[in-house]
C-alpha cells in the first residue's frame, strides 16, 4: 500500500539545474576554468562541495579547504540571487496537480533534495504547503547515492520506507532510492536512468493510481 511519495527537487519539481549552471559558470569564468553545460550534467544531484571539486579538477592549481569554502559560498550567493527570478511558472508541468491529487488521496508527500536551498525554492514556486515534510539536506551526512536522504524523508512523514516510492531524474538519486528499499520512478529514459523501475517523460504523466500500481 502506497503511504508516501518522495520527490527529488531539481529535474522533478523544477529545473534549477540551469540556475546552478549560471552560478557555477560565473565562478569558473572568474577562475579561468573551462566549464560548459555538458559538464554541468555531471553535477546533477551532487552536493555543493562535491560539485565544486569536480569543477576545480579542470583547473591547473589546487585550493586550500578555506579557499574552497569561500568559493562554494560565493557560488551560493550568486545562486540565491538567481533564485529571486523563480516564479510558480517554473514548476514542471503537472507537478501541482499531482501533489494535490496525492493529498486528496491521503498519500503523504516529502522532498528529498540534496539542495540546502530547497525550502527557498519551494517558497518561490508556491508549493511549500503541498509538502508534508522537507528533508534537511544540511543535516544529511551521506549524500546521494547513499540512502540517507530518502530514509530521512520517509521518517519525516512517518511512513515505513517499504510503503514509499521515490521520484528522481539523476542516476545517483535512483540508486539512493533503491538503497532505501523503495521502487524508483525515473523522469527520463532507460538510457539516462538504466536502474529506474519505471520511466516517464514528465511528472505530468504521473497519477496517484499509477504510483499505487507501481508499489505492488
Ligand atoms: P545547493 P536535487 C541538487 O538538487 C542539484 O541537482 C545539484 O546540482 C546541487 O549542487 C545540489 O542540489 C546542492 O544544491 O548548493 O543548493 O545546496 O536534484 O538533489 O534536488
Ligand atoms: Mg535531480
TrEMBL record:
The keyword DNA repair does not apply. Keywords: Isomerase, Magnesium, Metal-binding. It comes from the Bacteria. The active site is at 8 (nucleophile), 10 (proton donor/acceptor). One of its GO terms (biological process) is carbohydrate metabolic process. Substrate binds at residues 8-10, 24, 43-48, 51, 75, 113-117, 144. Mg(2+) binds at residues 8, 10, 168-169. One of its GO terms (molecular function) is carbohydrate binding. The keyword Transmembrane helix does not apply. The record marks 113, 144 as: Important for catalytic activity and assists the phosphoryl transfer reaction to Asp8 by balancing charge and orienting the reacting groups. Belongs to the HAD-like hydrolase superfamily. CbbY/CbbZ/Gph/YieH family. This is Beta-phosphoglucomutase. The chain holds residues 773 to 988 of 997 of the full protein.
Amino acid at each position: 500500500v502506497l503511504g508516501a511519495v518522495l520527490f527529488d527537487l531539481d529535474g522533478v519539481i523544477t529545473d534549477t539545474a540551469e540556475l546552478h549552471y549560471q552560478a557555477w559558470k560565473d565562478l569558473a569564468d572568474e577562475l579561468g576554468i573551462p566549464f560548459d553545460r555538458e559538464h554541468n550534467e555531471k553535477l546533477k544531484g551532487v552536493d555543493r562541495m562535491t560539485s565544486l571539486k569536480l569543477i576545480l579538477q579542470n583547473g591547473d592549481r589546487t585550493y586550500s579547504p578555506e579557499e574552497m569554502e569561500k568559493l562554494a559560498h560565493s557560488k551560493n550567493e550568486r545562486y540565491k540571487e538567481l533564485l529571486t527570478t523563480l516564479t510558480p511558472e517554473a514548476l514542471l508541468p503537472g507537478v501541482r496537480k499531482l501533489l494535490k491529487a496525492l493529498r486528496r488521496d491521503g498519500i503523504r508527500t516529502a522532498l528529498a533534495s540534496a539542495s540546502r536551498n530547497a525550502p527557498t525554492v519551494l517558497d518561490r514556486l508556491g508549493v511549500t504547503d503541498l509538502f508534508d515534510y522537507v528533508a534537511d539536506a544540511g543535516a544529511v551526512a551521506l549524500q546521494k547515492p547513499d540512502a540517507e536522504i530518502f530514509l530521512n524523508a520517509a521518517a519525516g512523514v512517518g511512513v515505513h520506507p517499504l510503503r514509499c516510492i521515490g521520484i528522481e531524474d539523476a542516476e545517483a538519486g535512483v540508486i539512493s532510492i533503491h538503497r532505501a528499499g523503495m521502487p524508483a520512478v525515473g523522469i527520463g529514459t532507460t538510457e539516462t536512468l538504466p536502474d529506474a523501475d519505471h520511466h516517464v517523460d514528465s511528472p505530468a504523466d504521473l497519477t496517484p493510481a499509477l504510483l499505487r500500481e507501481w508499489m505492488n
